[in-house]
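WARN retry 2 of 3 for item q-0093 after timeout on previous attempt; input resubmitted unchanged.
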Amino acid sequence: MSEGPKKSKYSATRRLHLKSKLLKKAASMLVTESEEKKKEKERVVNESFPPLKLSGLSNQELQELCKELHRKIDITDDARYDMEVKVSKNEKEIQALNLKITELKGVKRPNLKRVKKTTDDMLTTYSDTSKLMKADFKANLKTVKKEEEKREEVTDWRKNVEAMSGMEGRKKLFDAGQ
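OK item q-0093 returned
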């Protein structure tokens, strides 16, 4: 049934022409969309904040107008702060959930291949063939001398008890302690 690669209905030049037309249409749509967004933003700003009419106002009326503007600014600052707090809280929550997801999935480890090489083979790969050395790892190690434990000779305990009895035995113990 499959006879190899299928031929497309359109030639390469026709496809290129269609692609360029689609890109031109998309660009024009982006421009009109951005203009619509600008107009919408301007309309919302004009509705929310009508232009100020300052001509013909007394000092008292100007002060009232300033107080009213300050109240509006405080309200918008409160709303902005609340939105920022909500956004930061949501970002932290998203980050915590992403961490949980990665913990549940686990980190994928790549399958490692077993390589059977001797130490000599590894040294030949890392050094020049002219400087080939046998691996003698123990040659450069320091030698450590172990101290021999002092062992007391085990003698008859009865002789030891008789020797330590009396004042002389206590004096020997006292002298041995110092």
